[in-house]
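[Meeting: bench + compute handoff]

Bench side (C.D.) handed over the final construct sequence. Compute side (W.E.) agreed to return the predicted structure before the next meeting so the bench team could plan truncations. Sequence as handed over:
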Amino acid sequence: MSTPKTAWVFPGQGAQRRGMGGELFDRFPEHRATADRVLGLPVARLCQEDPDNLLRDTRYAQPALFVVNALSYLAVRDEGPPDFLAGHSLGEYNALFAAGCLDFETALTLVCRRGEVMSRASGGGMVAVVGVRPDRLRGLLAEAGVDDVDVANDNSATQVVLSGPPDSLAAATAAVRAAKAGRCVPLAVTAAFHSRYMRAAAREFEEVLAGVRFAPPEVPVFSNVTARPHDPALIGDLLALQVRSPVRWRETMDGLAAAGVRSVRELGPGRVLTDLWRPVAEALPAPPGPETLGDAAFRADYGVRWAYLSGSMFRGIASVALVRRMGEAGLLGFFGAGGLAHDEVERALDELTAAPGPGRFGMNLLAMPDNPALERRLADLYVRADVRHVEAAGFTGVTAPLVRFRFAGAHTTPDGTPVAVRNLLAKVSRPEVAEAFLAPPPPALLDDLVRSGALTREEAHAARRLPVAGDLCAEADSAGHTDARPALTVVPDLVLLRDRAMVGHGYAKRVRVGAAGGLGTPTAVAAAFVLGADFVVTGSVNQATPEAATSDLVKDLLAEAGVQDTAYAPAGDMFETGARVQVLRRGTMFAARANQLFQLYQRHGCWDEIPQRIRDSVERTTFRRTFAEVWRDTEQHYRDTGRAELVETADPRRRTALAFRWYFAHTSAAALRGDPGDRASFQVHTGPAIGAFNRLVHGTELADWRARHVDRVAGLLMRGAADVLAQEGQRRNGSAGRAAPGSAAPKLPRGAVTSNEQSPAGPRR
């Protein structure tokens, strides 16, 4: 376990009581004087005597409680800061004050305005429901036909507070009591706080917050709205939303526990929050195992044991056998449909759906700017075959086929919630592309899909309030289409973009962010989760496995590679744009020759303008045939694939590009066949992760790729990542000989999980 962390928490409205504050007012006379001036009455007398019963009035209860909470914090401030801060509703303002985001007077003034705004809301009420689990309560409300109350406070697994119209709250209370499911306690409030009925108040308070500047928190502060630490740029936005949004206290406590908090200290009157923390503390898990890494909702949505996927590899290298073995191990892999004809993909789908078994699999959809018809046909095929998970790779923007797949079957539930039944995982490395996938589909695109019959009006209606991608994967220094950005920057950047998109678009379901690229050791996988990844996607390490559909000769080369044995080359499917992929350099001349072709294309208008001696060299060593022969093969390929117009209308420069593309198709096919005569031109997509993995397993049975079954690789990486995190905790705690993460040799077969291990995914918290 890591070094135990602490959190200081502040109660919200309802904790106030006559007599609170005690000697604190005498200890901090300057703050008391400030509070007297801001409130316009003696705060000590209000809190300790309350002669006019003002503590029942929201306008006075909130600032009075804020002052007592704040003075309680000041009394212990010199003991040293906690690791985290959090506050329940009003208490969040105390947490922000303690974190240095606001000074005392500004925070108190803001709380006074908040109390005034909220006090003007009326016509509703609140009821605490104790002893009923939230899912059971939702069922009881649905059975009773009560659909106009909201969960205002999700406090614990057995305590929630409902907000809504008085008649509806009475009906909800009757339903709970009739089922003998728990106790219902009406609260002494005059409005339906933290619910849809506070929208006007939230808008009014948003104008108040517009003039407030928040300093970055010196200690992470959990937000009531997101149940995650505040993004400094969004504090004001989230405080406005908090007025009409549920207080996600249960998730906040779970988040603190997941962050390593083992001790919670309540600052303010009462012990309500301390009591809510106790069952969380009692249920804290043992040191992390692979089933605790990443996002629990991700594991549930994908039906997997671990937050780990095997990514697609071009031209079916991520084969049916590979994907099937992952599924049998309780994991999920994406079939490598990129570069395959429609019929080949259809046959693979038939195999994956016909075989008995767990049925976990996903399909790849590669960007095809020069073949949009095939992209559209594949998306239609995936919808007809009821594929639920698609990995989108190489896209520079949102296309109609992606939107067609994602929202086929989408609908709106009776309570107005939009639901997509299919998930799109978009692999991205550029922020502008990520933002496009995080946004709802462009309205014009949806309109076109409806007009063409590709989506129904109901599906399009739901799509307008959902992101194009349910999950994003940060493609770092990987084998696929990459901008060579390091995971250390691209993963946190996408996490920040995701958090802002969640607030900006008001999504109910969280978009998960994963990491891909460079994941060849347990330490690298652990680092990805520490960076904030909800899941990981591996690629290169799965290519040198028995299940990968490439040649044994390629697997031999990969198993001998080091981290230095890769290079960047043009991407054949996006040759003219300069997009790049990472390829194996050791044992092949492909990278050098492919880069030369791209340089020639950039420098010269067409093939005939290239100097004769260079043309002769290219034909002799790279093409190993004449340019005329290459062009004949190119023409035939485009005619065979129904795209004859691309060659028939091509000008000399375009002809040169299409002929150069022939080399990329030829070298990929040669590598897949394992033709020894073409070994010098093998195109093998891989990142340095394979070299790191080779170093890791050197001297073990997994040094031989024939023993590297894809699920054993997954087990080694994920179990090892859990061990790394535990070792790091022990090191920081000064125990276990201060073992450094990743210093131990791989423990086989502990990490080499067999495919018949079918333990279910465990809860994250």
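W.E. noted at the follow-up: DSSP finds 30 helices and 19 strands in the chain. C.D. will use this when planning the next construct.
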